[in-house]
């Protein structure tokens, strides 16, 4: 059990490190009129800490034991798992999502976080497209079928992305039955419209309503022997970190039907950032006028599972979530044959993909124009929401340019998130019939 103690301690150390960083930042340069402006570099500092921990967990674990009093006892962690596994927050989460009203495009455009939402949609589009492209290239046969599971699909916000990606079959699962009904309606609508265009036929679909942290989804598939190429879990895996059994069940569902070489991709909040920001604020809550986080666990001793916090995001999310300690996430994934390919903070992923995805960024209105065009107002209302943009333009030799950016409040929310990618590894068999993965 020292391993779990050490893992946990690493989180505390990482948070402490992040806390002691200098948050002053510089600004990125760009050359076009429609340049993309990023936020102050202080998030990067937090990311660096995260990367050190992910890439060199052993170094962190071997640190001097100055934080020894923070160590947790094995019994405490296991007691937590035991207690939480009988009564879960999954229904609270389901009720929350079921009650979110379906808003029309007009209404969504008026939202304070319209650009943040579009930006996150852009991140998902790029990630999905990146891995669907790899999958297509790896197929020997032209037009070979591509089967995908959109785990915790919600209202089907990614249905169009799957269409654009040219997949053949989609499984949609979610605990929130109302959301799943909306997803079905969206698909039906797409199907009706696609019957009228001349493109390739729309993918087929099946829906599974239920708790992905509690039930074995494979048994519900129309064909339980189906081999999947991609499993996507966007903004949802962290709900399962309420307990070890729930997290393991989610991983089993993500991994067991993926074929070797297939990918498990997703997005979720970054634990290091959450804890570091609480520590920096010297409080269990932090946020701004766009999002608020209030933490229900001891930030100096977060348990590996059941570290609950409440996340409020401008009318979109307001429900309990759970801290995902990344080394534990990777360790559990391994057990199910999933090898970490990469994990990148949204900020870094944006940096990497912004040129390739520039056209889509514009099309999806993922960034806000600054200064605002005539007759439009900025969404940010805080006095310092656009200081970074003003500074960027001031330093630009071309003078009065217009740039694309997010308000500081939105960057602060977005930079909490990370992408992750795992690859399913081919297995051999143990003498007792259990699969062995060389990871
Ligand atoms: C933030 S929404 C994301 C929805 C969708 N993936 C997207 O990106 O638009 C999180 C979704 O996870 C679902 N969810 C949370 N816990 C779940 C669980 N245990 N089993 C299945 N779905 C779950 C919620 O009902 C909700 O639809």
Please tell me about this protein's structure.
- The protein has a single domain, classed as Vaccinia Virus protein VP39 (Rossmann fold), CATH 3.40.50.
- The chain is 40% helix and 19% strand.
- It has 16 helices and 15 strands.
- It has helices spanning 2-19, 42-55, 57-61, 74-86, 90-99, 105-109, 114-138, 159-164, 177-194, 244-255, 271-280, 326-335, 346-353, 358-363, 387-395, 408-414; strands spanning 147-151, 169-174, 204-209, 228-234, 258-269, 285-287, 291-295, 308-313, 317-322, 338-345, 368-370, 403-405, 417-424, 427-429, 435-437.
- It has a 7-stranded mixed β-sheet, sandwiched between helices. Strands 6-7-8-9 form a 4-stranded antiparallel β-sheet.
- Helix 1 runs antiparallel to helix 2 and helix 1 crosses helix 11.
- The longest helix is centred in the N-terminal third of the chain and has 25 residues, at 114-138.
- The radius of gyration is 22 Å and the shape is globular.
- The two termini are 21 Å apart.
- The relative contact order is 0.16.
- The model is unreliable at 1-85 (pLDDT under 50).
- The site of S-adenosylmethionine has 20 residues, from helix 5.
- Keywords: Methyltransferase, mRNA capping, mRNA processing, Nucleus, RNA-binding, S-adenosyl-L-methionine, Transferase.
């Amino acid at each position: 059990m020292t391993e779990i103690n050490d893992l946990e301690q690493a989180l505390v150390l990482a948070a402490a490190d992040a806390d002691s960083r200098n948050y002053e930042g510089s600004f990125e340069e760009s050359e076009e009129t429609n340049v993309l402006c990023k936020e102050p570099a202080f998030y990067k500092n937090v990311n660096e800490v995260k990367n050190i921990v992910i890439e060199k967990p052993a170094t962190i674990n071997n640190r001097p034991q100055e934080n020894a009093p923070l160590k947790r006892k094995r019994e405490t962690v296991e007691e937590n798992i035991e207690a939480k596994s009988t009564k879960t927050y999954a229904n609270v989460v389901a009720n929350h999502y079921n009650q979110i009203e379906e808003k029309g495009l007009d209404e969504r455009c008026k939202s304070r976080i319209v650009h943040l939402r579009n930006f996150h949609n852009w991140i998902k589009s790029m990630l999905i497209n990146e891995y669907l492209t790899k999958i297509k290239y790896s197929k020997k046969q032209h037009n070979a079928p591509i089967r995908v599971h959109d785990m915790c699909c919600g209202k089907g916000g990614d249905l169009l992305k799957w269409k654009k990606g040219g997949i053949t079959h989609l499984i949609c699962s979610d605990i929130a039955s109302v959301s799943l009904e909306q997803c079905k309606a969206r698909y039906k609508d797409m199907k009706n419209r696609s019957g009228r265009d001349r493109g390739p036929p729309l993918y087929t679909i099946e829906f599974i309503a239920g708790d992905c942290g509690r039930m074995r989804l494979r048994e519900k598939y129309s064909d339980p022997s189906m081999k999947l190429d991609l499993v996507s879990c966007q903004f949802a895996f962290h709900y399962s970190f309420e307990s070890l059994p729930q997290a393991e069940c989610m991983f089993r569902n993500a991994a067991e039907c993926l074929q070797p070489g297939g990918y498990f991709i997703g997005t979720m909040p970054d634990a290091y950032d959450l804890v570091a920001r609480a520590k920096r604020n010297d409080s269990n809550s932090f946020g701004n006028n766009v999002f608020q986080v209030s933490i229900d666990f001891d930030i100096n001793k977060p348990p590996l599972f059941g570290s609950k916090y409440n996340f409020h995001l401008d009318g979109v999310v307001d429900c309990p979530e759970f801290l995902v300690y990344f080394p534990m996430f990777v360790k559990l994934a391994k057990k199910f044959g999933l090898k970490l390919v990469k994990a990148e903070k949204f900020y870094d992923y944006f940096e990497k993909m912004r040129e390739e995805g520039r056209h889509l960024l514009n099309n999806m209105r993922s960034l806000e124009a600054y200064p605002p065009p005539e007759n439009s107002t900025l969404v940010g209302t805080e006095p310092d929401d656009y200081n970074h943009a003003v500074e960027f333009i001031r330093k630009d030799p071309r003078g009065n340019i217009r740039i694309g950016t997010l308000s500081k409040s939105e960057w602060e929310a977005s930079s909490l998130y990370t992408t992750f990618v795992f690859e399913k590894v081919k297995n051999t068999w143990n003498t007792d019939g259990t699969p062995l993965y060389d990871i």
